[in-house]
Amino acid sequence: MTTDTASPPRTGVAWARVTAAATLGVGLYAVNGRIADWVVRGLPRVTEDSRTSEVIHFFLYDTVKIALLLTGVVFIVTVLRSFISVEKTRDLLGGKGRVVGYGLAAALGVVMPFCSCSAVPMFIGFVAAGVPLGMTMTFLIASPLVNEVAVILVAGSFGVEVAALYVATGLTVAIVSGAVIGRLGLERWVEPFVFAARAPNHSTPDAGPTWGERFTAARYEVRAILGRIWPYLLAGIAIGAVIHGWAPADLFARWAGPDDPLAVPVAVLFGIPLYSNAAGTIPLVEALHAKGVALGTAIAFMMSVVALSLPELVLLRRVLSMRLLATFVAVVATGILITGYLLNAVV
To answer: pTM for the full model?
Structure first.
């Protein structure tokens, strides 16, 4: 589990460190807004320009807020994931009935998120282990779409009720999309070498890591993830800050306002070719919504970015034929469109 040669701390010491870090993080999160207010007021010539102060305040507040949320959520989920491996996940899904299998695949996708670089080995491993194609697709859709980072950030920005709707609709998109692909019987459009692979045998009993090892691995996972995504995170927050402070509201009302019937398709089309993650996209969603874009439209944009990112599609082309890849994009995009219109109607 650990990534260096140093011995992990003893259980008591490890828990004490985690408790102290959690207390510090919660305290900083609670006073984050006041710190941002204090910094903005202390900057010369900024308080005279309300738009500039809004941009700086948005950037400072969201950077600290999202960094703290990411650190806590990634740490907790990494510890939870240490209790279940990818191999156990494949074994759990293999041989399950359709109803149970699709629901379980979606649920496991939420708690076992992966980055786009691991899409191909995950796909090969699942199919080689005997997991049906539809369930595999459900897992691959749910994992980036309804991952723990997205859920926590949506809740932090828009409230628990909106986050619950996001989870429900996102899981529905993943399950229905996977079920549709599964019912179409498109295994023939998977590249042949995938079925020739064989899942390794993991029958050797494993006593499992200690709590010290779990916490050490979680700490390194936080460092690795933040190290990978910080440019996208800062870029997303910066763009969101500019939109929040300077972009005119009528600009968004013209192309993605709440009364525009084409707003959701436009948002999805804009999102598909982009590459980002929930951490980098949520600030954009927050700023767009503040400027008059309907919440469902903004969330549909985020869903298209994280579920249909260009790097993941390029990598999936290695194991899927163009026809299956196009079907995958069409089915998922349709689900996101329906989600956007539904959220616009109920929120």
So the answer is: 0.65
